[in-house]
Amino acid sequence: MVSYVKRGGRMTVGQQRAWDDHWPRLGRTVSELPEGPLDFTAWFGREAPVMLEIGSGMGETTSQLAAAAPELNYVAAEVYDPGLGQLMLRAEKLGVENLRLLHGDAVVLLTEHVEPDTLHGVRLFFPDPWPKKKHHKRRIVSPSFAALVASRLAPGGTFHMATDWENYAEQMLEVCSAEPALRNRYDGWAPRPEWRPVTKFEQRADVEGRVSHDLIFEKR
Q1: Closest CA to 41 of 50, 53, 51
Q2: Distance between CA atoms of 75 and 42, rounded to whole angstroms?
Q3: Over the stretch 87-116, which tens digit does the pLDDT of each residue have?
Q4: Residue ranges at the known binding site for substrate
Q5: Greater confidence, 201 or 212?
Q6: Which residues are annotated as a binding site for S-adenosyl-L-methionine?
Q7: Rg (Cα) of the chain, in Å, rounded?
Q8: Which of 20, 117, 128, 206 is catalytic?
Q9: Closest CA to 56 of 27, 77, 29, 35
Q10: Which whole-number Å values give the CA distances from 159 to 6, 31, 44, 146, in the listed order?
Q11: Could you confirm whether 117 is annotated as catalytic?
């Protein structure tokens, strides 16, 4: 079962050009990866802590976060082709060198291609909220997902989530608090980090009166 709904959409000329120019070096497709763990050290050409961001969207936040942390090997997983094209465009403008992209299901990536106890951190910012109650089961944050993320984090590694949907935030808090391998760094919500850029989604949520919540758990 895939943990996302495939998003269609045509690329702009710029996104397609970025894809043609950069994808062969920067990108891989999850379903086409060889069996076994992905060798991030070889792919980046250096050994560095690996940060995985799940659902990079149009790359607005991801490109800035990767640029701000050159000491990390920053990996973005996304299912939306134009989003990956836009991320490569943004990264090119910012001169980002420490970013690699994966197209496909992050659950398959984590399960089949990431070794246990290896990731410096996992970020999940504003995932699809599936606001209708009957669709809540489609939300990516579930007990099995929290356990999977926890198993792939190195000890002390962080799982950082953010959402502007109150009941999804509460679900994230409940699910991750119940995962024995994770510990909440804060008593409930984390303070909003100054380093996390405000996205257009977050701005819209603010206008619509929804409060964004951050949660930061770490591997015990």
Answers
A1: 50
A2: 13
A3: 999 999 999 999 999 999 999 999 999 999
A4: 132, 164, 199-202
A5: 212
A6: 53, 78, 105, 128
A7: 17
A8: 128
A9: 77
A10: 24, 24, 22, 9
A11: no
In the chain, the N- to C-terminal Cα span, in Å, equals: 29
Neighbours of 196 (CB within 10 A): 17
With residue 125 as reference, give the H or E element that holds it: strand 119-125
Distance of alpha carbon 183 from alpha carbon 190, whole angstroms: 12
For 161, phi and psi rounded to 5 degrees?
-120, 155
3 state SS of 124: strand
pLDDT 10s digits, 134-188: 999 999 999 999 999 999 999 999 999 999 999 999 999 999 999 999 999 999 9
Instruction: Give me 124's structure tokens.
Output: 């999940």
Name the strand (E) or helix (H) holding 155: strand 153-163
Asked if residues 101 and 26 have their Cβ atoms less than 8 Å apart, the reply is: yes
Q: Evaluate whether 197 touches 58 at the Cβ level (below 8 Å).
A: no
Tally of residues, the chain: 220
Q: Model-level pTM greater than 0.85?
A: yes
* Cα–Cα nearest to 148, from 216, 219, 214, 80: 219
Binding-site annotation, residues: 53, 78, 105, 128, 132, 164, 199-202
